[in-house]
Design goal:
mainly alpha; 2 domains; two-stranded antiparallel sheet; 5 helices; 6% strand; binds iron/sulfur cluster
Amino acid sequence: MRRFNWADYTGSDSFANNQVGIVNDVVLDMNDDLTRMVLNPDVTVRSRGVIEKCSFCVQRLQESKLKAKKESRPLEDTDLKVACQQSCPTNAIVFGNANNQHSAISITRKENPNRQFYVLEQLHVLPNVSYLAKVRNLEEEKKEA
Ligand code: SF4
């Protein structure tokens, strides 16, 4: 997902009108030095004007890679979950090493050859993210038509 940063969380003092929309006590509280400490220290908070997009939770990846390196072993699927994967109750997101034949992502892709697609595949942009198409009962749709 891409999202435009409208607020400047880390340097709000530098803009007199940094607070967006309704300015009340809550908004002002969210911009004080103490409240800003609730921001996750592992995640860089970009400034106003920067477009945000998925970083594949690079901070989690780096932490797990370093841990695996210290233990002199390769990074495994089970070492980490990205935040969206961790918070999804239906396990709709699979993340891992597509170059490892035994990883969950490789198995998911192998098991769903007819449903899997890549966005703009026809342009040969070779994205790392693939999606599974919705399962439809085409027979029923044909009967209704
Ligand atoms: S939570 Fe998911 S969408 Fe957000 S940065 Fe991590 S991998 Fe990307």
